[in-house]
Amino acid sequence: MSDADDDSPAERLARWTATDAAIGVAAEAEQLRATLAEREAEVADLRARLANLATRVGQLEADNLALRRSRVPMTMGSLAYRGYRRTRAFGGRVLRRFGLRG
Amino acid sequence: MTLVSVVVPSIGSRGHVHGSDRTFVVESVRSVLASADLDIEVLIVAGAEMPAAVVGELRSLGDVVRIVDYRDSFNFSAVVNLGAAHARGTHLLLLNDDTEVITKDWLARMVAACGPDVGAVGARLLFEDGTLQHAGHTYRSAAGHVGFGMPGNSVGRNGILTRRREVIGVTAACMLTPFAVFDAVGGFATGLPGNYNDVDYCLKVRMAGWSILYEPDAALYHFESKSRTPGIKPEEIDFVHRRWFTRLAEDPFSPATV
After folding, report:
1. What is the pTM of this model?
2. Which residues in B lie closer than 8 A to residue A28 (C-beta atoms)?
3. Cβ-defined contact of B82 to A9 (cutoff 8 Å)
4. Are β-strands B211-222 and B99-101 bridged in parallel, bridged antiparallel, or unpaired?
5. How far is B243 from chain A (nearest CA, A)?
6. Residues ≥6 apart with Cβ < 8 Å to B162
7. Rounded-to-integer distance, Cα B169 and Cα B251, Å
8. 3-state helix, strand, coil in chain B (%, to 5)
9. Are the Cβ atoms of B189 and A9 closer than 8 angstroms?
10. B224 or A32, which is more confident
């Protein structure tokens, strides 16, 4: 009736043990390939993110450089204004200390 | 011509069901013989614990019943393989001994469902109280049964419990599989002596290209305790994960809710 009619039970059992083991090896290999593919995708993703970050760092460095170069030089007017503000603040602190100002 | 070899592992256990005591395997085989509308042979794979009186009772059921002695330590997969190794049929029907047929044409329906592309067919199994024990496997979160514990007449979403459909796997408590398929995939894995052997078998069958079907019109009682603790061993989990981890994570047939 069955395809393996000519086999003895012992022969069938031996064949099935071997077949199951071979299928098991193939299935485990498939799992390893799937895991490997997953890890490779993860590595590729990390590489892409690293490349994006490197580009961003390059842009920021370029921006910084441009900012440094475009810094406005100090003029006598701005220096005088800074001195006036510092003196005014100092005066305020002294007056407050001696209770001459609220 | 179709000949179904019914393989029943048993140690001749007794239990109380539907108000009376019974020897499970004897009543199970009686219900199979009374309902089978196809040519069958019944192979009882008897553990050493089976009482001689039960063996005698089984022999008295007819010439189609054969006893195959199993003398090694318990290994469900090895027991099933031993029974299958003695089979003469075109199809194997793996059947737990604590079952009882409900629908009279169950076997013909299972065989009819088993087309050339089908590697295994499972039945609708009910607990003694009529609630659902099995309507196909689901591997969505963990390996389990679709509709487990629901009322036996539940339809489920989109009739999932009452229509023939493809599933990721079926329980070996009642599983029809062509002998050629069983032979091609190397039977049950003896590395899984107690649990997940049907999960592994079904995944081997699917990996080889056959589909698995659930046939709701083949209904049987399965007098397993609802609270049965399967006693899963870490090495069994490891075995299944090593072979099938990614496939277990891909169950396209089970809905999130039934």
Report:
1. 0.83
2. 242-243
3. yes
4. antiparallel
5. 5
6. B154, B155, B156, B216
7. 10
8. 30, 30, 40
9. no
10. A32
